[in-house]
Each structure stands twice: as structure tokens, then as C-alpha cells.
Amino acid sequence: MTATKSNNPGRGPLTGIGSALRSIFKFLVSVRLTITVLSLIAATSVLGSLIKQGGTEEEYLALYPEKTYHFIKLFGFDDAYHSTWFYFLMVLFAVNLASCTIRRIARRKKGSGDAGMPDIKGLVAAGSGFSAPSMHKEEITRRIAGRYRKKTILDGGTLYEKGSLSRHGATLIHASILVILVGGFIGLVAGFKGFMVMHVGETGEKALLRDGKNTHVPLGFKIKCKDFRISFYPGGEPKEYVSTVEILDASDRTVMERQIRVNEPLSYKGVRLYQASYGKTNRFEFLVNGKKVLLGEQEVYSEGKTPFMVARFAPEVHNFGPGVMIAYLEEGQKPKTAWLLANVEKMRSGRIPGAVISLERIEEEYYTGLEISRDPGVPAVLFGFALMLFGLYVNFFISHNRIYVVDNGDSLNVAGFASRNKEGFREELKAFKEGLT
Amino acid sequence: MISQHTVLGAATILYVLLFFLHALYFALRKDRVMAAMWYVLYAAFAVHSAGIALRWAESYRLGIGHAPLSNYYESLIFFSWSISLLLVTMRKRLSYPVITFIATALSLFLIAYASLSPSVQKGIQPLIPALQSNWLHVHVITCFLAYAAFVISFVAGGLYFIRSKGIVPSGEILEEINYRSIIIGFFMLSSGILTGAVWAHYAWGSYWSWDPKETWSLITWIVYALFLHARFVRGWKGRRMAALSVIGFACVIMTYFGVNFFLSGLHSYAT
Ligand code: HEM
């Protein structure tokens, strides 16, 4: 860069830009911005909890007048927590919090170093300390050192300290919020959330996202449902449901076999599989020209000359019990249908071109619903949680105490400060000279 | 075997007695009455705890053993118990007749509502699989301790506007009580939200899903965070802080009751 010099635009505009930048920075670190942004986040959340989220157009029109619906749509209130401006608020909040935190740390650095001796005599006079004859110095400092760290030797005295971490409590809390936001952001950018439905025996390798666009995300491995069990309480409520699954690698080798229960997900290669739901479907056992064939609803059997499928299932057909309507397709013709009834001997089988089909059994079969997610931000979020609780604890429940011991030759002055629990501190000071005569 | 309902009924009667003891104190202003009040409060707390323990034991006899923290009835009983717990453990700081009066009256209201309202299911229900987690205990306990602390803060904040000399403690004392309850409440609420998020992560595969109860607890948390900043960064005091604690408590009410009645979501089993 040789043009540096000629690019220098002179002082006037530079200070203009400089002061503009400075006022932007001032705005970004201001507590006023914090209050505004937090209030807006809270207000959006209120709206989001009152207005139905992620519904379809019909659902909204059933709930609200059309004008209101257009308004909701226009501002993205139908998906408030994922709307552009909610993200904007979050980013603004993060920037605000980050700049506040950085400024606090910088100020701490500048103002650190111990400010020297406070007015010990004044503290003693105010009741935050005491005087004792010098001969007790050893015993008193021994007692103090039992609970306090000796910090520094200042001009004319010694400083003992305890709980100095609590000065950093607010910084820890603020930093933890940033860590959580970063974790959330990572999850948003690099993660996904979807689900998968499987019958026993089926294998899946893609999760279906709930974005209404039928997007499938490959897992990078295959998962096979080996078993699904459900048990009920005597009252009929579900007690436990468990899927037994196998993870298969690219060459179909079994890598692991596990059970997935509610509250006990399976984690493999950064993807987590949760037992989320279950359901029942019917499976139909047919004899097709004497060969046993098992079909689900809408599943096409196409081995014979004429493909057919179970188009509909009815639990009760004109009081004759359960039955299915099969649909079959002869070449060059429109699909035709026929009813087969499971419990009526004469109506159990039918003839379609090229095959005799009979409906042998209808079985209810459970399928398992797995929630599938990948969220590389989770470790950061969990770390942020721990950091926040630690920071809150340190900030609110630990007192930063300082005790100064000054030797005046014939007498000793002991006095100090506490950031919290001042009465407790005075009691503690008193105890240091108790029993000394 | 005495049933849990009998024992909780006895606790309710003790809370009624506390109500009348306070009334008696306000009429006579005799310290002896307050001394007796504290004994009865300890007794009520002990009986209340025994009732909860019996319900716990009974769930095991029914073969569906779980801590009594899982439905609306149990949460009301536990809420009421948490308020008494705070009174008993912070006796030194909260020993003001108006404060114990309002707080025990709220305990009474909650336990009486739980047992008398026909819309509250009182039976012991089996736990659905999603609730079978140790996180349930930490989550519920921290949340209700937070709510109880916010009750105390609300009482102190509300009393700040009623400066009747003699009964109501001084503004300084009320501010101190208010602030202390809020830091306990804020710590517990944060723990409650975070343990809830960790649990959701294990049970549903997502630590935050903007379900109405989650959302309202976040709103509540933000309001109290604003409270703490107003005090520490802006140096707010007095009426404005008292007003903020009333607003914060309105959010608590919405989080606990409102969401169950007006909105639906993952937590709706709690009704
Ligand atoms: C919702 C998010 C936030 C939470 C939960 C939070 C929490 C806290 C807590 C607990 C304290 C300590 C109060 C005390 O001294 O006991 C504090 C102090 C403070 N916060 Fe925040 N904070 C948040 C956001 C922010 C933001 C965005 C800013 C930036 C403007 C900020 C600026 C400050 C300042 C300047 C202090 C005074 C710290 C001191 O004692 O020196 N806070 N905050």
C-alpha cells in the first residue's frame, strides 16, 4: 500500500467519522439500549405466545379476521421467534452485551491494583474494626489467616482478602449469556431437527425436516429398527416405550445396537435420536396365488402380472367386520377396486387378472417415531448454563471481604470491608479478638 | 393408615388458625400472640411436609411411585409448602406480622384451592414417560422456590405502597426484603429455566422450543434482570422498584397459572 499518504483525508472529516463511530459505540454499550432491546425481546415473546405459531393459512383464517391475518403475516408474527427482526434483536443484544462486557473488563484492568490503605482509624471508629494491644498480634493474624488469604503488604499494614471472585460475578454472568447465544447460533447454522418413522424391521437413513417442504437430511449412517415395545399402566396410560435399533455403517455392518427410551436418547456421530412418539398402523397378510405377502396401507405389490395395493381399510364393513379395498391396475385400463372381508369366509378372496388374492389376517402393528437432531452448539450452551449458575452464585452469595491489619507499635488496628452480609462481617471481626486479654 | 388427604386437610386447618392468630394480633397487639403464631407456623409446616411425604409413600403403594411433583394439584401443594419453607428458614428477616400474615394467607389460598376446587384433579396419577426423569425434581423444586421467593418480594413491594405506620415495616426494611427475595428468586428461576432446558434436551431433543411456558418464564426472567440492573446500574430505589416487583410477580402468575389456562403447549399436562 503505497498510497497511504495521499489517502489521508485531513483532520476534519476524520474526526467527523471518528465522533460518529464513537457515538455509535456509545449507543452500543449503553444500558439504555440493553433495556430497549430486552423489552422488545420480551414484548415479541408475549406476542409469540399469544398468537398461534407455525399454523397453516386455513388455521389462521379460522382464528382471526383476514385483515389481522395479513398483519400477522406481514410482520412474521406467525413465526415470531424465527423472524428476521427477532434475529436482529438477538444480534443487537449480543453486540450490546459483548461491548458492555469488554468495556467492564478493560475498566477493571485500568483500575486494578490496590488503592492503598484506607482510613483504618475511621473504620475502627465506625465499628467496622477494633484495636488491640500489640502483644496479641501473632494470635490475631493467626486467626485471620485461618480464614483469609494474605494478599499484600502495603505501606504500614497487611491486607487479608476473601471472596475476591465475587467482583467478577457480573462479568461471568454476562459472558455466560454470550456463550449461550453463540451456542444457539452454532446450532442454528450447523444443526438440523427432524424426525423419522419406522416399523419394526425397517431401515432409515434420512430424517424428514418439519419445514413443510418435505426436505430430507441424510444422517451419514443407517438405522434399523429391530424392535419396538410399549407397556401400559393398569389405567391405560403409556408407561414406557422403547425402540431397539441397530446402527449400520456404509457397508451395512452393524456398528452398535442400543435401546432408545424417552429421556434416554442415543447419540452417534453427533446425531441424536430420541424416542418421541409411537403409533399404530395395520399390516395385511395376503395369499397371492398361495404365496404369503405382507403389505401396509398404500403399499403396492407389483411382482405379479397385475400390480395391486391396499387402497383403504375399514374396521367395520356393513357389520361384516374389518375389510380392505384393494385397487389393481390392468395394462392400459383404469384402476379397478374390490373389497375383501377378513372375517367372512366367502368374501375373503377375490380374483384379479393373473392372480387369486385372499386376505388372511389383519394385524395391528406399532411404529416408532424418532426425533432426530444434530446440534453442535449444545456443548457451548451447556457450558454457558453452568457458567451462568456459577456466576450468579458468586455474584449474589459470596461476599468480598478485605481486612487490613496495621501495627502502630504499641497497639494494633484491625478493620475492613465486606461487599455483602455486613453484619456477619462485623461478627466475624469481633470473633478475631474474642478471649484475648 | 392415615391418608395423605387427611394430613393435608389438617395442614389446611392450621393455616386457617394462622389467619385468625394474625387477626387476633392486629386486634390486641400482644407479642405473645405472635410467639404462638410462630409455633403454629412450624406445626403447619411440619404437618404439610408430612402430607407430601405420605402422598409420596402412597404412590409407591399404588405401584406408580414418584415424587409428588407431577400434576397441577401436586404443584399447588408444593407451591404453598415452598412459601412456608421460606418463612421458616428466613424467620429472622421476615418476622413482621403483616408479611407473615399475607404470606401464610397465600399458602392457605393455594392449599385450599388445590383441595376444594372441583377442577383440580386430586388423585395420584402415573407418570407419563416424558416425566420419568430426575431432572423433573430439580426443575420443579427450583422453579417453585423461585415462585415462593417472588411471592415474598411481591408482598414487600406491594406493602411499600401502603405506608400505614405501626404495622407495616419501614420502607428501608421492605426494600431490603424485596431485594433479598429477588436475588434468591432470580437465582432459583435461572436454575429452574436452565435445568428445564437440560431436561428438554434429553427428553425432546431440543433445549429450547418456545413453548408458552418456557417463553413466559423467559419473560419473567428478563423482567427481574431489568429489576437488578435498574437497581445496580441506574440506582433506582423506592416506589419504582416496588412497582417493578409487582410487575415481575404478574409475570410469575402468568407463567404459572395463565399459561395453563389460556395457552397450550408441552407443559399442558400440568393442568
Ligand atoms: C438478560 C441479560 C442480563 C443479565 C441476566 C444480567 C445480569 C446481571 C447481574 C446479575 C448483575 C449484577 C448485579 C449485582 O451487582 O448484583 C449485572 C450487572 C450489570 N450489568 Fe447485566 N445482565 C444482563 C445483560 C446486561 C447487558 C446487555 C448489559 C450491557 C449494557 C449489562 C450491563 C450491566 C452492568 C453495567 C452491570 C453493573 C455491574 C457492576 O456491578 O459493575 N447487563 N447484570
Structure explained in plain terms:
- The complex is a heterodimer of chains A (437) and B (271).
- Chain A is an alpha+beta fold.
- Chain A has 3 domains: 19-110; 120-163 and 399-433, TATA-Binding Protein (2-Layer Sandwich); 192-374, no CATH class.
- Helices cover 36% and strands 35% of the residues of chain A.
- Chain A is built from 11 helices and 19 strands.
- Chain A has helices spanning 4-7, 11-29, 31-50, 57-63, 66-74, 84-111, 120-125, 137-147, 169-190, 378-397, 422-433, and strands at residues 129-133, 149-154, 157-162, 192-199, 203-209, 216-232, 238-248, 254-261, 266-268, 271-288, 291-296, 300-301, 308-314, 323-328, 336-341, 349-352, 355-374, 401-407, 411-418.
- In chain A, the strands form 3 sheets. In chain A, strands 4, 5, 6, 7, 8, 9, 10, 11, 16 and 17 form a 10-stranded antiparallel sheet that branches. Chain A has a 5-stranded antiparallel sheet with strand order 1-19-18-3-2.
- In chain A, helix 3 runs antiparallel to helix 6 (84-111) and helix 6 runs antiparallel to helix 9.
- The model of chain A is unreliable at 1-10 (pLDDT under 50).
- Chain B is mainly α and 271 residues long.
- Chain B has 2 domains: 1-122; 128-271, Four Helix Bundle (Hemerythrin (Met), subunit A) (Up-down Bundle), CATH 1.20.120.
- Helices cover 75% and strands 0% of the residues of chain B.
- The radius of gyration of chain B is 19 Å and the shape is flat.
- The two termini of chain B are 29 Å apart.
- Chain A binds chain B through residues 31, 34-35, 38-39, 41-42, 45-46, 48-50, 53, 81, 184, 193, 233, 235, 237-241, 261-265, 272, 274-276, 371-373, 375, 378, 381-382, 385, 388-389, 392-393, 396-397, and chain B through 64, 125-126, 128-130, 132-133, 183, 186-187, 190-191, 194, 197-198, 201-208, 210, 212, 215-216, 218-219, 222-223, 225-226, 229, 233-234, 259, 263.
- Protoporphyrin IX containing FE (HEM) sits between chains A (31, 34, 38, 96-97, 100, 170, 173-174, 177, 395) and B (222, 225, 228-229, 232-233).
